[in-house]
Amino acid sequence: MPRVKIIAEIGENHIGDMDIAKRLIREAAEAGADYVKFQSYRPENFSTDDPEYEWFKKVSLSDGAHSMLKRYAEECGIEFTSSPFSVERAEFLCGELGLKEIKIASGVMLNFPILNYINSRVDTVFLSTGMATLDEIRDALAHIKDVPNVYLLHCVAQYPCEDKEANLKAISILKNRFPACGIGYSDHTIGTDACLMAAALGAQVIEKHFTFDKNAKEGTDHILSLEPAELKALVKSVRRAESLLGKDAKEPTPGEERIKEFVRSRFL
Q: Do residues 195 and 216 touch, judged by C-beta distance below 8 A?
């Protein structure tokens, strides 16, 4: 099976502190993740009446912060990506930063102006499908039909997501209904069991929130996030799962080939 791509979703867990953001990038790389992912918006993308306006203002990343964090990720040997929440931010990520791999969050998966913009400008889209029906997913895909690599990520947009709501069987549904796409899982449950089950179900991408402290007081995502040691353990477990899953074939293993004649001859 293809190597599972593991995305460490830093999101807003840097709490507006760039030293924390850099630390999380470094620790995600050391844990073996393939990507660090942030969120790209400006305070003016939100109404001042929004109850979280001051929080969004605090954690929004400036253009300079984006550039600095991308450079630092490159120094650490990990890919940098982000989720745009406006066309202007998509233009910045693709044009100024030159990103070729973009994450589309569930909340904007039907924002067709954003999808239309990135359609001819990126090589890979990771599309989260929280809250979406199959028809809505088809609608979104029609707007990124020219992107060579699209991964549909099963996602439940609850923070945290209760086990009974995770519905991991949807991964198989997405595989069957959208065979031209890669399939993945963006996890909001607590712990790592759902991620490992998703890998066993064939997820080619696993996204998990990542934090410096699950008990941090600022922000809402820490409780469902992994700390560095947990992320490292998840990566190790996913890599073992890949080995255990093997390939789509039923045939003797090399080890069995060496012994099968002897073993069968015993019973003739």
A: no
Domains identified in the chain, total number: 1
Please report, for residues 41, 120, 205, the alpha-carbon distance to residue 181 in angstroms, rounded to integers and kept in the order given: 27, 17, 12
43 CB burial (10 A radius; 0-12, 13-18, 19+)? middle
- Residue 180 sits in a domain of what CATH number? 3.20.20.70
**Distant-in-sequence, close-in-space partners of 250: CB < 8 Å, separation ≥ 6:** none
Beta pairing partners, 39: 83
pLDDT tens string 29-75: 999 999 999 999 999 999 999 999 999 999 999 999 999 999 999 99
- Please give the model's pTM, rounded to 2 decimal places: 0.95
Q: Which H or E element spans position 153?
A: strand 149-155
Which region, left, alpha or beta, applies to residue 98 given φ > 0 means left and ψ of -120 to 50 means alpha? Answer: left
Q: What range does the domain containing 247 cover? A: 5-265
β-sheet bridge partners, residue 5? 205
In the chain, the N- to C-terminal Cα span, in Å, equals: 37
C-alpha to C-alpha distance for 190 and 256, rounded to whole angstroms: 40
Separation CA 171–CA 249 (nearest Å): 21
Residue 8 main-chain phi, psi, to 5 deg: -90, 110
Cα–Cα distance for residue pair 134/45, rounded to 1 Å: 28
The two structure tokens encoding residue 19: 């030293």
Query: CA separation (Å) from 178 to 142, 172, 208, 257?
Result: 12, 10, 23, 37
pLDDT digits (tens, 9 = 90+) for 189-230: 999 999 999 999 999 999 999 999 999 999 989 999 999 999
